[in-house]
Amino acid sequence: MAAQSGQITAWLDQGLTLTKIHILLGRRGVVVSYRTLNRYARTELGFGKRRVTVRVADCEPGSEVQVDFGRLGLLTDAEGRGRVVKGLIFTAVYSRHMFVYPTHRETLGEVIAGFEAAWTFFGGVFAVVIPDNMKAIVDRANATEPRLNDSFREYAESRGFVVDPARIRSPQDKPRVERCVPYARSNFFAGEQFRDLDDCRERAARWCREVAGMRVHGTTRLHPAEVFATDEHPKLKPLPDTEFDIPAWAHPKVAPDRHVQLNRALYSVPGDLVGQRLTARVDTRTVKLYWRGELIKVHPVVEPGRRHTDPADLPAELTAYATRDLEALQRKASVHGPHIGAYAAAVLEHPCPGPRCGRSTGCSASSADTTPRPSTKPAAAPWKPKRSTSA
Predict the structure, then answer these.
(1) φ and ψ at 127, to 5 degrees?
(2) CA 81 to chain centre
(3) Cα gap 360→347, rounded to integer Å
(4) What is the DSSP string of 187-212?
């Protein structure tokens, strides 16, 4: 057994169970009972011993707030159906003052709405937010280089706070808020009857101020709301004075007509980027197109089914044809001679027939040849009545 101690230690560091290690040792020809392996791992390798923990000192007032999602219970709607209610819980690290935002979903919009409600409740914005790896905030979790959701990262920049996500399956990274989840579930939500979600949110804010905020905290032995009002609130950043317009990010492909499709609407793209993938940012007012991190175009948002085309984005030789610029078409026809120009002017006096207008004036060809050509289609045979086949 001692000869395999190094390998057993490596397996334990990898997270393998003793049961699996017992199987792997058997494959290596080391035949021992599971009880012998368990006793050896505990006495010689320190398996099963509790780790020594060290309490981390609290941060400066107003510096950090920890955020977590937790299940509160079921809320019966008007039709008698029970829907799961989750709580987006904020806990100030220094004072332990907390805020609960009940919601049904964990979408980006609901998370940002919860953050806005929290800043209003606290009367300011904390400098650092330590959230769980919820999908609305973190696209790819990593211990040192997590990738944040682009829209939430933009929201954090607009409100002036830094996002420092906790590691996966590491509750010790946000211990202040971990214990608040069961506390909010048992002391606030359990046994209560709410009219709807708005009523639940209103009573949650009142419970945070009057009950959770005024309790004697088990660690600090102080009232969290009083400590927050005295030490933390003056250190917070001011409340935002504008509403955040939540953007959506996409990666559309440039079509052969030099347009990209976003929300079923088309927007022109400058340059020869046909077939390339762009990065697009869309909010309620503007569409911004990026190529390799550089902003190349800004469009106003149009309704689905419509298009917004900047003539400067199209090839110069096709701009007049695509935009139906009649004056440009007539000037282009006049270049080929006065007679062709007069013919084009006569054609353009009538309502534009659409794309046929370009063919009739020769604007889609290198030269304008308006000479009528004889039809090459053979003439139809004269109609003759069929003979009756009846006897």
Answers:
(1) -75, -35
(2) 30
(3) 8
(4) IIITT---SSHHHHHHHHHHHIIIII
Asked if residues 344 and 333 have their Cβ atoms less than 8 Å apart, the reply is yes
DSSP 3-state assignment of 156? helix
HSE of 267 in the Cβ direction (CA atoms, 13 Å)?
Answer: 25
Side chain identity at residue 72, one-letter code: L
Length of the chain in terms of residues written: 391
Residue type, 300: P
Of residues 165 and 339, more confidently modeled? 165
d(CA 138, CA 153): 9
311 or 290: which carries more pLDDT confidence?
290
Q: What are the tens digits of pLDDT across the range 282-302?
A: 999 999 999 999 999 999 999
Nearest one of 314, 216, 300 to 268, comparing CA atoms: 314
Q: Is the pTM for the entire model greater than 0.90?
A: no
> Do residues 303 and 266 touch, judged by C-beta distance below 8 A?
no
Bridge partners of 261?
Answer: 266
What was the pLDDT predicted at 331? 74
> CB within 8 A of 174, min separation 6: which ones?
66, 67, 68, 130, 131, 132, 166
Token output for 3: 């000869």
Q: How many Cβ atoms are within 10 Å of 373's Cβ, its own excluded?
A: 6
Question: First vs last Cα of the chain: how many Å apart?
Answer: 108
β-strand partners of 174: none
Q: What angle do CA 280, 281, 283 make, to 5 degrees?
A: 140
Which pLDDT band holds residue 6 (cuts at 50, 70, 90)?
confident
Minimal CA–CA distance to 174: which of 163, 182, 166? 166
**Six token digits for residue 383:** 């109609």
Classify strands 162-163 and 98-103 as parallel, antiparallel or unpaired: unpaired
Q: Please tell me the predicted confidence (pLDDT) of residue 174.
A: 86
